[in-house]
Amino acid sequence: MARDEPNAGFNSRFTEDLIGLDPDDPEARAFAAHLDRMERSGPNFTIEASLDGVADFAESTNRVGGVRRDAAWLIVTLILLGVLVGAWDTLRAALTWLAG
């Protein structure tokens, strides 16, 4: 498997970079997944890359707890609130334009 493929496989990671670590150890697998995310490259200016970034943010938020999780929740809530306000304003402007 190529390195650029998503989830290129923990087997190649353990035979190349993490020699000597147990592939069945959950901590070693988590570290291998971290290395895969760090080495992932591609165009960052596409919609798919933006969605991958959101997915990475959501996955990392699920791994943390406490204040960091609360801060991530607040950020997501504020983003969604901004989208809702923007959509409402656009809808209101469109209805005003159509009416008048």
Proportion in β-strands: under 5%
Tally of helical segments: 4
Mean pLDDT across all amino acids: 80
- Helix content estimate: over 70%
Characterize the largest beta sheet: strand count, sense, and whether it forms a barrel: none
Q: From the helix content, strand content and strand pairing, which structural class follows?
A: mainly alpha
Strand tally: 0
State the end-to-end distance. Answer: 61 Å
Poorly predicted ranges? 1-8
Backbone shape: elongated
Summarize the helix and strand pattern as letters. HHHH
Rg measurement, Å: 21 Å
Keywords:
100 residues, elongated, mainly alpha
Describe the structure.
The protein is an all-alpha fold. It has four helices and no strands. The longest helix is centred in the C-terminal third of the chain and has 33 residues, at 67-99. The protein is elongated. It starts with 9 loop residues before the first helix and ends with a helix.
Secondary structure layout plus pairing:
Blueprint (H helix, E strand, L loop, with lengths): L9 H7 L9 H14 L7 H17 L3 H33 L1
How do you describe this structure in short?
With 100 residues, the chain is mostly helical. It has helices at 10-16, 26-39, 47-63, 67-99.
